[in-house]
Amino acid sequence: MTLVHQATGVAGPYDAVTGQLSAYREVLAEMGVAGGVHAALVAPGAPAGVEPLERLQAATGDVVLVHYSGWVAGMQPLLALRRRTLLVYHNVTPARYFWRLEPRVAVSCERGRERLPAFARAAHVAAGVSRYNAEELRAAGAADPRVVSILLDPAKLGLPADGSGPPGEGPGSAGSGPLILSVGRLAPHKRPDLVIRAFALYQRQREPDARLLCVGPPLNPSYLERLERLVGETGARNVTLAGGVAQAELNAALEHASAFLSLSEHEGFCIPLLEALAAGVPAVARRAGGMPDVGGDAVLWTDGASLGEVAELLHLAVTDEGLRVELRRRAREQAARFAPDRVAADVRALVEDGLG
Amino acid sequence: MTRPEQASERARAEAAERDYDERPGPVAQALEEGVRPIDRELLRELATVEVDPSVLYSTQRFAVPVTAAKRLVFRLMRQYTAELEARQTRFNVAVLAQLRELEERVEAAKRERG
């Protein structure tokens, strides 16, 4: 029996790629295909069932599906495999965002980009999770890369549907002013600093009671401390840097959110944006990387050059009821393009082509 | 009602009218500099290796005592790590000096060729 093993660099909690390992495992199980799930580095809190990469034993005829989002020590065996490989590219953040703050991450990113061509050329079938990623794969030498989006099932996550039902309890449930929600790791390329500054302007000029909730673990304590100092410098009030939270708490935050904001400069896909769309939360976002693929025409786009403009977009997204209704309608349509059955069909086709 | 396609233009106009003060303070500026591409100045900064003890921490169980233990080991090993830092910095600075010299030679060669 042919097995399809999944492998990646790092598996941990609150990690998009790790989430995909689990989602793919379900699709593979529905196909009747077994196989292990492996990571070069299994971080504390990683889901059960993820095993260290050194335990990967792929027999002749087995297929290895590599989720690639960077290079970490211990991934070498993946390049030496003499097995059919499938590559799903989640993108690698440019190293320049980390050189000053977290050199180890910078080195990992730099190596990740250096080694992408080796993975791209070795793959029998390659896919990017967005058109943006597929183009990077093509540039790296992959033959005819396809797009297989992120597998996200709003029903399984229990995401709120357009504010119906009583809002749950979570980090955004206290307070009465409009809640601006920003979700993503607190890391330089996500530009949480710009989110804080734009929010401060919005609060000062438009909504003194507005609240900002940033959900996502910080890159490191030093970066978190800088962001906290930035909050003080801007004079913004009601700002919560909540760190990583459980899905139920994130769902509660989405229920309470008046608008979603992302000013990230680099995204391979942006799951939080899709979650916001699925929950019917009006979104303001920077047109960067794979985000336009995800958001389509259901997002208030900005180039991020003017924080005053971002503040005004937030004001519109919060107060213009007609606009909110239209954005919710478009968000439903856009989220439907990423319906799990559609994406699962793409995953099945990817695996079937990989199996030959 | 504003159409989504009109929102950006309207927001820009409103922002111009309200005259937002977008000037970054010192903390914001430092964060901005943290994401700029590598240039010679950044290379010079990176060449000097100086490990900040705050990078030693733990987020696992017993994080507080584990963090304290890591930092204690770092202090105890300081003599050794300081020597490593100095040697690595010496090498980095020497490479940068060579690079600068190479750049000057390239520039000179370009000038000679007219």
Detailed description of the structure:
Chain A has 356 residues and is of the alpha/beta class. Chain A has two domains: 4-152 and 339-355, 3-Layer(aba) Sandwich (Rossmann fold); 155-336, Rossmann fold (3-Layer(aba) Sandwich). Chain A is 42% helix and 17% strand. In chain A, strands 3-2-1-4-5-6-7 form a seven-stranded parallel β-sheet, sandwiched between helices. In chain A, strands 10-9-8-11-12-13 form a six-stranded parallel β-sheet, sandwiched between helices. Chain A is globular and about 65 Å long. Chain B is flat and about 65 Å long. The A-B interface holds A 44, 96-97, 99-101, 103, 188-189, 191, 193, 197, 201, 205, 220-222, 226-227, 229-230, 232-234, 265, 297-302, 306-313, 315-317, 320-323, 326-327, 330 and B 1-5, 7-8, 10-12, 14-16, 18, 20-22, 24-28, 30-38, 42, 45-46, 52, 54-55, 57, 59-60.
Main features:
heterodimer, A: 356 residues, alpha/beta, Rossmann fold, 2 domains, 7-stranded parallel β-sheet, 13 helices, 42% helix, globular, B: 114 residues
Explain the layout of strands and helices.
The complex is a heterodimer of chains A (356) and B (114).
Chain A: E1 4-11, H1 16-30, E2 37-42, E3 50-52, E4 63-68, H2 76-79, E5 84-89, H3 103-122, E6 125-128, H4 131-139, E7 146-147, H5 154-157, E8 179-183, H6 192-205, E9 211-215, H7 221-234, E10 239-243, H8 247-256, E11 259-262, H9 271-278, E12 283-286, H10 291-295, E13 299-302, H11 307-319, H12 321-336, H13 340-355
Parallel strand pairs in A: 1-2, 1-4, 2-3, 4-5, 5-6, 6-7, 8-9, 8-11, 9-10, 11-12, 12-13
Chain B: H1 4-18, H2 26-33, H3 40-47, H4 63-76, H5 78-113
